[in-house]
Amino acid sequence: MKDFQKTAVILFQLGGPDSPAAVRPFLYNLFCDPDIINFPGAFLARKALARFIANRRAPHVAERYNLIGGRSPIIDLTLAQAAALESRLNPAIPSKVFVAMRYWHPFTEEVVERISGNSYSRAILLPLYPQFSKATTLSSLNEWHRKTSSRQRLQSTFICCFYNHPLYIKAIVENINSVYAKFASHHPEEIDLVFSAHGVPVGLIREGDPYQLQIEETVRLVMEEGKWKSPHYLCYQSKVGPARWLKPSLPETIEELARSGRRHLLVIPIAFVTDHIETLHEINIEAREEARKLGIVQFEMMPALNNNPLFIECLADLVRRSVSNELLHLPSCRNLSDQKPHRPAPRLCPYCDTDRR
Questions:
Q1: CATH, range 3-162+311-330
Q2: Which residue of 77, 92, 190, 277 has the lowest C-beta tally within 10 Å?
Q3: φ/ψ bin of 106: left (φ > 0), alpha (ψ from -120 to 50), beta (otherwise)
């Protein structure tokens, strides 16, 4: 079948260094992102500042990657997700699934080059960030527009988020249950479910970033679906720089639970759809070691969704609905905001005032 009859599905993801030598340039690309480093006059200082931060952080970050195999697994895991999704879509929806990484190969520009030589009928832009944020989803979308601005625009549809998709929620619950079974000798009330999401600066939330509202809704839906009788907590991780970020942090939460006599923790990386340095090192090595020092007896981590069949089916459902222009009617960011009027309105959500999903 010729490509002009196909749909190009573009999976946006963060990316990660594929070798020790890639750590420094990966960090430079990250901190050179105008959606990450932005302040008055930033365009004059951004590259120099990114180079300074990358040079300073690279040795420490490289040590962390060495402990998980010397490279980020996010590349292989995301390519596996793309292959699984492509298999799930074809032949009902003739498709080719591409991976566009934001800060390392395969870069967005590389994917644009690959699809430009073919006449695909449409492009579905699907960020692998379940919860929308300026620092992730919007950054990837802005990069896509920058790299396609000088080319003939391919008809494209943007899927902004899927934080409340029923299959996404079920996939998380399935993964939690696979680890929850390790606590079989303990009463549910003795087990603490610690949901850990990647943090963002509080300033982003004040600007109208819907990320925190969507994270909280994902946790609520997961707990509702899972029906566990264990207490649960939401915290944030991966803080960088002096700015104030969302709290409480993962280390603070573990310390508080240990101080109150809790001894059995199941940490759930709620905003990560693949395992990478934030799960494999920050949680499974750093947080685990700190928990042990604080007296935690059992520390378990839920694996990221990776190739969970329910998650792949979730992605396939999003693509199918996008192709057929069928909307999935789920509570919008405006609904979430109305329930929490003390929070900033989620103005950065592209569909804040519509029912579109």
A1: 3.40.50.1400
A2: 92
A3: beta
Q: What is the pLDDT of residues 188-233, one digit of tens each?
A: 999 999 999 999 999 999 999 999 999 999 999 999 999 999 999 9
Global pTM reads 0.94
Tell me which fold the domain 166-301 belongs to: Rossmann fold (3.40.50)
40: amino acid identity, one letter: P
Separation between Cα atoms, residue 229 and residue 6, nearest integer Å = 47
Closest CA to 314 of 177, 198, 208, 162: 162
Nearest C-alpha neighbor of 336 from the set 350, 352, 348:
352
Distance (Å, rounded) from C-alpha 21 to C-alpha 71?
10
Cβ atoms < 10 Å from Cβ of 117: 7
Q: Supply 353's token pair.
A: 């005032």
Q: In angstroms, rounded to a whole number, what is the distance separating the alpha carbons of residues 31 and 53? A: 8
| 235, burial (CB in 10 Å: exposed 0-12, middle 13-18, buried 19+) | buried
φ, ψ of residue 264 to 5 degrees: the values are -130, 110
Where residue 241 falls (left for φ over 0; alpha for ψ -120 to 50; beta otherwise) is left
State the CB neighbour count (10 A cutoff) for residue 312. 23
Q: What is the dihedral of CA 31, 35, 36, 40, to 10 degrees?
A: 100
The reply to whether 3-162+311-330 and 166-301 are identical in fold is: yes
Question: Which residue reads 């905003």 in tokens?
Answer: 271
Residues 306, 85: Cα–Cα separation, whole Å: 12
- Residue 43 pLDDT class (50, 70, 90 cuts): low
Instruction: Pull the structure tokens for residue 28.
Output: 């430079």
Rounded to whole angstroms, what are the CA distances from 241 to 201, 245, 270? 10, 9, 22
Q: Where are the domains of the chain?
A: 3-162+311-330, 166-301
Residue 10 tokens, joined: 């573009």
Give DSSP secondary structure letters for 141-200: HHHHHHHHTTSPPPPEEE----TT-HHHHHHHHHHHHHHHGGGTTS-GGGEEEEEEEE--
